[in-house]
Write a structure and sequence with these properties.
Largest sheet: 2 strands, antiparallel
Mean pLDDT: 95
Strand content: 5-15%
Number of helices: 4
Radius of gyration: 13 Å
CATH superfamily: Ferredoxin thioredoxin reductase catalytic beta subunit
CATH architecture: Alpha-Beta Complex
Number of domains: 1
Shape: globular
Structural class: mainly alpha
Number of strands: 2
Strand order of the largest sheet: 1-2
Helix content: 40-55%
Length: 108
């Protein structure tokens, strides 16, 4: 496993957003903290664990919360953003609304 840089992680997140038709959260300080968390998790665990969730201890156990997590598509469709608010729908981003807390479906 090779460590990832902040730039590599930002590139990953940008590619995910582009591929899914989403956008990254425009709050640069907030997004920077999430990118940093993803980078730390990669360098610690070897995979992009959602920075807003705790690890279950293995990639297999965490497979549902590898970025973008299994819940992100539904969350973005319903709320306009994913649980950690890294990814926003383009319509939500254009609305100027701020992401708010949403249910963590992992714990349902």
């Amino acid at each position: 496993m090779t460590d990832k840089s902040i730039e590599e992680t930002r590139h990953f997140a940008t590619m995910v957003a582009d591929k899914q038709g989403w956008t990254l959260n425009p709050d640069s300080d907030f997004t920077d903290s999430l990118i940093d968390g993803l980078t730390v998790n990669w360098n610690r665990y070897g995979y992009y664990l959602c920075p807003c969730r705790d690890t279950e201890g293995s990639r297999e156990a965490d497979s549902d919360v590898l970025c973008p997590c299994r819940y992100s598509r539904g969350d973005i469709e319903q709320y306009g953003h994913c649980f950690c608010a890294l990814y926003l729908s383009k319509a939500f981003a254009e609305s100027g609304e701020q992401p708010a807390g949403i249910p963590d479906l992992r714990n349902v």
